Predict the 3D structure of the following.
Amino acid sequence: MDDGEYEVVIIGAGICGLATAVALHRKGIKSVVMEKSESLRNDTGTAIGIWQNGWRALDQLGVADSLRSTVIPIHRERIVSLDDGKEQLISINGEFRALRRKDIIDTLFDALPPATVKFGCQLESINTDTDTAKSVLRFLDGSSIIAKVVIGCDGGNSVVANYLNLKPTKIFSLCGVRGFTNYPNGHSFDHEFGLFRKDNILVGRIPMDDNMVYWFCAHPYLPEDERTWESPELIRRSTLEVLSAHPQEIEEMIKNADINSFSLARLRYRTPWDLLTGTFYKGAVVVAGDALHVMGPFLGQGGSAGLEDSVVLARHITQKGLKQVGNERKIMVEGLGEAFNMYAKQRRMRVLRLSLETYLTGMLLGATSRLKKVMYFMVLSFLFPIKNGHVDYDCGSL
Ligand SMILES: Cc1cc2nc3c(=O)[nH]c(=O)nc-3n(C[C@H](O)[C@H](O)[C@H](O)COP(=O)(O)OP(=O)(O)OC[C@H]3O[C@@H](n4cnc5c(N)ncnc54)[C@H](O)[C@@H]3O)c2cc1C
């Protein structure tokens, strides 16, 4: 990579990093995205559910309509307790669809000017030049660049979050498996989000269209799972073992899943109390997405929260951190403090509430004693009495 000087450098070309680059681009601000992988990471993670709040952010980013056309909308949730046979049908408030992660990544990437993303650039460290207050970014290959603004979107194991002294993330006792199953003659499932609970296992099933189904399974992490990490066939086998007492249609779904779509992830989270007290920015360095608030998948909100971050951050940088120089919009370092302060103020309570609800939901699912289950259930019901109330959030205009 060429050494050089840049206005805005985004670290990480995941959903949040690309969305942030798109948001800035739509406001006339040029950025460069440094990604450690050698190519776009559009072949991992199968799909994610995007609720109404996420669609609002995608609308602001100008990519919602093309993404909408790729999958069907889902209008209701069916929550089934396989322990006692109870079933609940809930209408979904607003828009909900599962999107292929590849489609989100490709669509955001395509919305950027050519050469915005630089691949094979793994950030190793950040230092501040005391004379200029600019950041010196050093990469694994020994090169370094200077940046006026650094936005860390480098995921749950973030170098930028470390620079801000955010506490290390923690790991749930659960892991998540995901995949796609294609039914060549059409599946027989209603266009609904099926959630099946049994003991400490949660299975979710969301049709993408009349043939393709996205599914996920959260279950207690076993040390043996370490062995299955890299082998889709082993992930399938161990998932089938975990789900051996589940209804046949669920077992069939896993058995017939596309072997290349299997992925297994340890579920990380930043504790809600670290988000309450943690630093979101220092000088001209700020964090967003999983780098800031990695959370379990139990509410399906991690990706959408990162999309919201991108819109709010770009809005405040535009309002307080810009000056017009000729035909160009340049970053005004003196205004950045106020812009980042407003970003942190607006995002802190939002991501704190999402993370707390996700944390309690994960703890409820993973709890092994009845007493703990009752306790987590009561705290959840007290703090978050409206199911899916968090999807009503509107991150506002870009
Ligand atoms: C099982 C599971 C199910 C989920 N389901 C949902 C769902 O239904 N709905 C939802 O909204 N969310 C869901 N999520 C969460 C969602 O996937 C994440 O919140 C989202 O992908 C995070 O995006 P990000 O861009 O912040 O981070 P990442 O996707 O982690 O991207 C970070 C990027 O930074 C790069 N990078 C890392 N370190 C460096 C470095 N040092 N230098 C340069 N580049 C670097 C990485 O290569 C990567 O490309 C789920 C997560 C899991 C694990």
